[in-house]
Amino acid sequence: MCQRPEAAGPAAMGDGADTGTETGAGAGAERRVRIVVEYCEPCGFEPTYQELASAVREEYPDIEIESRLGGTGAFEIEINGQLVFSKLENGGFPYEKDLIEAIRRARNGEPLEKITNSRPPCTIL
């Protein structure tokens, strides 16, 4: 089903406002983190987004996470505007633990690195 050549539009289904400010003041203050996940709806990736968003919210209830419809085969994740995962580059989906670690780094003001580990997109029976 992911063979459709046309790309889905960039319609947003937001869950929060666009902010990149720190919460609190002084050293050690946690930074606000905003995540945008762009995924291919015709490919059936919405349940994967929902599962990932649920895991993120369970670990970090105050996280802003937003979804956007993307092009064919897309499952791209940005944290505070920086691309940290690309299914188009890696061929699979991110592991929850890797995304949680990237969020922890962003909250602590540490530099973000691309997530390169990925799990296969589907199982062929």
Would you mind describing this structure in some detail?
The chain has a five-stranded mixed sheet. The protein is built from three helices and five strands; from the N terminus they run ββαβββαα. The chain is globular and about 40 Å long. The two termini are 16 Å apart. 24% of the residues lie in helices and 19% in strands.
In short:
Helix content is 24%, strand content 19%.
Protein structure class: alpha+beta
| Element-level helix/strand string | EEHEEEHH
Portion of residues in helices?
A: 10-25%
Q: Classify the beta-strand content into a percent band.
A: 15-25%
Instruction: Give the integer mean of the pLDDT values.
Output: 81
DSSP helical segment count: 3
User: Based on DSSP secondary structure assignment, what is the total number of beta strands?
Assistant: 5
Biggest sheet descriptor: 5 strands, mixed
Protein topology:
Layout: E1 12-13, E2 34-39, H1 46-59, E3 64-69, E4 75-79, E5 82-86, H2 87-90, H3 96-107
Parallel strand pairs: 2-3
Antiparallel strand pairs: 1-3, 2-4, 4-5
List keywords for this structure.
single chain; 125 residues; alpha+beta; five-stranded mixed β-sheet; 3 helices; 5 strands; 19% strand; globular; disordered N terminus
